[in-house]
Amino acid sequence: MSLVSFSLILSGVLLNAVAQLLLKAGTNQLGQFAFTWENLWPIALKICTQWPILAGLFCYAVSVVVWILALSRVPVSQAYPLLSIGYVVNALAAWALLGETLTGSRISGIAVILVGVYLIVRS
């Protein structure tokens, strides 16, 4: 895999991870809610006025464009498993930025993912 291809995949994965973190930050600001017919429009309006949610959706849109560029260069069977890097990035960022728990089993899972990514990139 070329450096350009790997960079495109990694950029797409990181944009996706940033999108997830922004959506979580936006929902933290909103608080817990339930969609019902009665509150559909008020909740939709609240969602549409949260800048982290809008920024997260924008990151998703850009990540799709980057992913398409990556898939034009790399077989999907090689590119798709690299999306698992997003689990690693999100777990570490959620721990560092959002105060979420990073348990021993999660760290073990991250290690397994990293070994798998290494094997895929190396092939």
UniProtKB/TrEMBL annotation:
<keyword id="KW-1133">Transmembrane helix</keyword>
<keyword id="KW-0444">Lipid biosynthesis</keyword>
<feature type="transmembrane region" description="Helical">
    <location>
        <begin position="104"/>
        <end position="121"/>
    </location>
</feature>
<keyword id="KW-1003">Cell membrane</keyword>
<dbReference type="InterPro" id="IPR000620">
    <property type="entry name" value="EamA_dom"/>
</dbReference>
<dbReference type="InterPro" id="IPR037185">
    <property type="entry name" value="EmrE-like"/>
</dbReference>
<dbReference type="Pfam" id="PF00892">
    <property type="entry name" value="EamA"/>
</dbReference>
<feature type="domain" description="EamA">
    <location>
        <begin position="4"/>
        <end position="121"/>
    </location>
</feature>
<keyword id="KW-0448">Lipopolysaccharide biosynthesis</keyword>
<keyword id="KW-0472">Membrane</keyword>
<dbReference type="GO" id="GO:0009103">
    <property type="term" value="P:lipopolysaccharide biosynthetic process"/>
</dbReference>
<protein>
    <submittedName>
        <fullName>EamA family transporter</fullName>
    </submittedName>
</protein>
<dbReference type="InterPro" id="IPR000390">
    <property type="entry name" value="Small_drug/metabolite_transptr"/>
</dbReference>
<keyword id="KW-0997">Cell inner membrane</keyword>
<feature type="transmembrane region" description="Helical">
    <location>
        <begin position="80"/>
        <end position="98"/>
    </location>
</feature>
<keyword id="KW-0441">Lipid A biosynthesis</keyword>
<keyword id="KW-0443">Lipid metabolism</keyword>
<dbReference type="GO" id="GO:0009245">
    <property type="term" value="P:lipid A biosynthetic process"/>
</dbReference>
<keyword id="KW-0812">Transmembrane</keyword>
<feature type="transmembrane region" description="Helical">
    <location>
        <begin position="43"/>
        <end position="68"/>
    </location>
</feature>
<dbReference type="GO" id="GO:0022857">
    <property type="term" value="F:transmembrane transporter activity"/>
</dbReference>
<dbReference type="GO" id="GO:0005886">
    <property type="term" value="C:plasma membrane"/>
</dbReference>
